[in-house]
Structure prediction request, 127 residues.
Amino acid sequence: METQTTPKTRREVPKPVRLTDAAAARIVEIMADAEGKYLGVRVGVTNGGCAGMSYTMGYAEDAKPFEEVMEEKGVKIFIDPKAILFLIGTEMDFVQEKLCSRFVFNNPNQTAACGCGESVSITPAQA
Prediction:
């Protein structure tokens, strides 16, 4: 399991999210097109949709208080503190299909998904 060192404690802790090579490569491309305007990508979850929650992604212009910041494969990911327990153990992938391409969250904490694939049910990670 990959780990990161927190600046406050200097102990190694597991990374909450892992990136596949495809996800990291796509984020590197996206960030190159952003021409240095952003620090990285922000990931989180929000309430909504027919299954209860949705994953969120956006540019990170700055670090917000209490955010988890991780670096992996040349990519900086900012994780909303309210989302950490829902994302622990998640693998973020990027898939290209015949008619679309998208980021996919393979989350062991996900218990259900709606038929359209836009929202999910997630339980917090257990100790």
